[in-house]
Amino acid sequence: MSDDLVFLYERAAKIYPRAIDGRFQKLRKAAVFWLLGMYYLFPWLNWDGRQMVLFDLPARKFYVFSWVVWPQDFIFLAAFLIACALSLFFFTALAGRLWCGYACPQTVWTEVFLWIEHHTEGDRNARMRLDKVPMSLRKFRIKASKQLLWIGLALWTGFTFVGFFTPIRQLALDFPLQWDLTRWFWVLFYGGATYANAAYLREQVCKYMCPYARFQSAMLDRDSLIISYDESRGEPRGARRRDVPDRASRLQEGSTPSTAELGDCIECKACVLVCPTGIDIRKGLQYECIGCAACIDACDEVMDKVGYPRGLVRYSTENAMQGKASRLLRPRVIIYGMILFALCASVLLGVLLRKPVIMDVIRDRGALYRFANDGRVENAYQVKLIHQREEPGVYELRVLTPGFELVAPARIEVTAGQVRNLAVTLRQPEEAARGAKDVVLEVIDVADPTLRVQERTRFFGPG
Ligand code: SF4
Ligand code: SF4
């Protein structure tokens, strides 16, 4: 009976990647230190007497260095996020999964969790042996130290995450008695997610959960830089004596085809053993490949040992691998690049030209016009002033169009970040107030008269 059972679920085999050093792994380490350094350090740094990076959701204000992002600035935030998505398209078309290999949070934290594992349990073989032996005092001690370090890092990550949304120093001072349920929930939730993703799910996230892995092939073409195995140089692969020179030298020396038969791949499988997703790059580009370049470093190390030139596995393009010319500038790179440039330039321009006060003038919808006691024609308006500064301010409102009188407070005082609504009136003598005309209002910062904002509205009179 049991012979007829077919299980549709197969438990994923645990991957034990071998540690490797090399030029690309040094680059990745630098990226990990830089990115995690920013993550863990930024909330603790101050700027202008407040937390340097703080996303204050209740106040609907984001502090990023000297810039305060007000709700009215969220258009820049949206543009920034679109620019991030576009840059992913652009860099993928240029050089494949750079993002996954060097900057994706999943890769970065998994890398740190792997370092901890490596330093507590040892390299690949030691870890495999440890997992096979029954529980003992030694095994318990090693596993417990790894778990303690993992859990500590995960909780610190959760704590730091919450520290981006609430002042982190206060969060630390309030711990643990004054933490409310929301704080506990987010620290534990984010810490738990870090632990699960980086300690256990690891490559499963990249293989099965990340949508980018699935659609990246649509952004690649034959000229994109990807991690490739040079089949023409490596095949047919096979083990050999240490003193056999590489294929190019053998052919140069006029070897017969039989001695030049083997390619440069010595079938050591080092490239497979270091792969964090457990694939064999020699089978060609696979969606599971996260572009970590560990296989390049591993193969280069092997090539150095056997005295063959490096680069059997390397960054290359499909065209280059087939001996064809590669083009850096292709239509998709140019189009992505141009859109990205235009978007970044407009965001930058918008931020540079942004004024700390916004004025909105809305006509009173009740009546088109009315007559004042002295016979003049009046129009009523609602003026909305948005003061986007961290300190209080004083403004003056005036009408720039000649022939009008403005009835409004002489000084408009606002507190930090205040949105102030004012009822104002424009007046004109009846004989001049014929038909509809444009009127320009101007608001001036009393402390800094160079800061002026103008707004056009309509004035209606009889006839
Ligand atoms: S590391 Fe290089 S030589 Fe070894 S199996 Fe991989 S491709 Fe072949
Ligand atoms: S094949 Fe494996 S080791 Fe090589 S870049 Fe891809 S994920 Fe990294």
Portion in helices:
40-55%
The overall strand count is: 16
- Low-pLDDT residue intervals, each spanning 5 or more residues: none
Q: What is the overall silhouette? A: elongated
Strand content: 15-25%
Biggest sheet: strands, sense, closure?
A: 5 strands, antiparallel
What does this structure look like?
The chain is of the alpha+beta class and 463 residues long. It has three domains: 23-219, no CATH class; 226-321, no CATH class; 357-460, Immunoglobulins (Immunoglobulin-like), CATH 2.60.40.10. It has 16 helices and 16 strands. It has helices at 23-41, 74-95, 98-103, 105-121, 124-132, 137-163, 168-174, 181-201, 203-209, 211-219, 231-234, 247-252, 270-273, 294-306, 318-321, 331-353; strands at residues 46-47, 50-51, 53-56, 61-64, 67-69, 226-229, 313-316, 357-363, 370-371, 377-387, 393-399, 405-407, 412-414, 419-428, 436-445, 452-460. The strands form five sheets. Strands 8, 9, 10, 12 and 14 form a five-stranded antiparallel β-sheet that branches. Helix 4 runs antiparallel to helix 6 (137-163). The protein is elongated, with a radius of gyration of 33 Å. The N and C termini lie far apart (96 Å). Bound molecules: iron/sulfur cluster (2 copies). Residues 229, 234, 237, 265-271, 282, 298-299, 302, 312-313 line the site of one iron/sulfur cluster.
